[in-house]
Here is the input.
Amino acid sequence: MPKVALRDSLLRRPRRLRRSGALRNLVRETRLDPGGFVAPLFVRSGRGIREPIPTLPGQMRFSPDELGREIDDLQALGIQAVLLFGIPERKDPEASGAYADDGIVQDAVRMVRRWHPSMVVMTDVCLCAYTDHGHCGVVTDGRIDNDASLELLATTAVSHVAAGADVVAPSAMMDGQVGAIRDALDASRFDETAIMAYSAKYASSFYGPFRDASGSAPQFGDRRSYQMDPPNVREALREIALDVGEGADIVMVKPALTYLDVISAARAAVTLPLAAYWVSGEYAMVKAAVAAGWLDERRATMEVLTAIKRAGADVIITYAAADAARWLGEEAT
Here is the structure.
């Protein structure tokens, strides 16, 4: 081989910086941090309850007292935020449990606020788990009534913040929900409370395990008339722009793993913090493959989270938050 050709080949050796773990870490472009994880937690009434969720391996339904112990563990791992989902004892057409002062989320928020004052407490603001029909808004004459739903969503958000929530996260995909909630919070002197908007929430097939965990499956029809159509990206950017204009402080893409292109497009379009939700079905697929012996759980999970971060997410909502934080801690020691 001529010397010039050899010299040229030696100039192009990217492998030089892959030779050891320390070198790879030194030049790593995308880094995960437990401080950027949000752990979703399901809370139900009772005491001493840690109820496994069969469709979400490793996840539990907690009573408020057990929720506090779980948050102890999360804080010790460096996780600074949780997103609470309530499972009410009763449901009705008006979703009254969603905004009741003694509702399950309101009680849980008060408990977390007392025990863990430094934890960022986020709450999901939706009606689906509290309605007897399982839809995210009010049903009038067999259809989802967008405008009638806004007042109930706003009332729910205010009740969560009155209990001590730091961030409310409206997920119903009702048009104008962010603006209605912002107005209601400001009118109640909660103008410093942030809104994390489920801005681009798709009508995905990957929500099944969550609906089983929360008991929120629709009893008729589906949610495609208000959640986004999966083939659309430009529409997601319009939804995000609307929420930004209505006062959102954080915008979100959901799901995450199957919508990395949407996360990337959203990152290019907005300067607000961007969240992505690695949803129940995406998480459960990895768990199922691990259980079958087809994947290494640690490597697969960290690869997924890195991909979501690399696509542009600042905040990752993930059921793997505790495991990932533990593994990152082990890598650092």
